[in-house]
């Protein structure tokens, strides 16, 4: 990995340029984050955020259609609706549900897990706070406990692939996307949680951010797994120690508009060869 130096300063300058251009509410749609912004009550926002992030697989248009369908079951007050729902409501809502590799059983498991946590802890944040107390400063273990508590259905992991467990070694991009939305507060991320700090967050690692991380020398991993996510997060933390996921949204938006050219721009800036082009 590259130590901080002149190249890092140039990269930080480039990333700040990208951040100030693209970290804007106007660029949120069609990102599933747009659903979170529809709600104003914290208890609804966290429920919607977990549902939307858990379904964030595939084309954004397909994700939006699926999230819209699920939220339609829950009405204008999703948290209260879940608290009041009976088992038969959840079975009726999820009957015939399928999206990508998620089926009715897994979606029902997620909704039942949300209901159980809300009834026991009062909120998802309170559940996360409990998990952090149980596991101390080990965020990976705390997040694993949080996801396992949400996904548990008897002795089974009822939510299945909708709630991956960090202990299994994956990057758990969707769980970390959920945390980014709930913990950070700026023009894009709505925040609302106080139980975690931005410096405790991990990059929601997808193939795009994995390519960027490798381009910047933050990781040499061949796969976008949990270890790669931690290494790339550490790389960004050397640039912004208090907020290592600061550039996640902006880089994703830039990637949608400039494609693979982003990697070339990053390399140019790190070597001093470019002044950012039209970014």
TrEMBL record:
Organism domain of life: Bacteria
GO biological process: one example: DNA repair
GO molecular function: catalytic activity
Pfam families recorded: DUF2400
SUPFAM superfamilies associated with the record: DNA-glycosylase
NCBIfam families linked: TIGR02757 family protein
Listed name of the protein: TIGR02757 family protein
Protein's organism: Desulfacinum hydrothermale DSM 13146
Top-level taxonomy: Bacteria, Pseudomonadati, Thermodesulfobacteriota, Syntrophobacteria, Syntrophobacterales
């Amino acid at each position: 990995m590259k130590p901080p130096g002149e190249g890092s300063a140039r990269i930080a300058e480039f990333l700040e340029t990208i951040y100030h251009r693209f970290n804007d509410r106007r660029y949120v749609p069609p990102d599933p984050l747009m659903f979170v912004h529809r709600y104003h009550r914290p208890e609804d926002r966290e429920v919607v955020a977990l549902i939307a992030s858990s379904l964030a697989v595939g084309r954004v248009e397909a994700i939006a259609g699926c999230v819209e369908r699920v939220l339609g079951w829950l009405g204008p007050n999703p948290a209260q609706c879940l608290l009041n729902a009976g088992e038969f409501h959840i079975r009726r809502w999820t009957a015939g549900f399928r999206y990508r590799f998620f089926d009715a059983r897994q979606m029902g498991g997620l909704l039942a897990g949300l209901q159980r946590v809300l009834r026991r802890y009062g909120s998802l944040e309170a559940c996360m706070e409990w998990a952090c107390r149980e596991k101390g400063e080990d965020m990976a273990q705390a997040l694993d406990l949080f996801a396992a508590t949400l996904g548990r259905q008897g002795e089974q992991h009822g939510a299945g692939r909708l709630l991956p467990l960090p202990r299994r070694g994956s990057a758990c991009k969707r769980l970390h996307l959920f945390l980014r939305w709930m913990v950070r507060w700026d023009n894009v991320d709505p925040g609302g949680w106080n139980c975690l700090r931005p410096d405790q967050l991990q990059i929601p690692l997808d193939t795009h951010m994995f390519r960027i991380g490798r381009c910047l020398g933050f990781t040499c991993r061949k796969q976008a797994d949990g270890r790669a996510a931690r290494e790339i997060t550490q790389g960004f933390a050397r640039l912004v120690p208090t907020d290592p996921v600061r550039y996640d949204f902006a880089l994703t938006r830039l990637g949608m508009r400039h494609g693979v050219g982003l990697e070339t721009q990053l390399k140019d800036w790190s070597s001093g060869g470019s002044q950012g082009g039209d970014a």
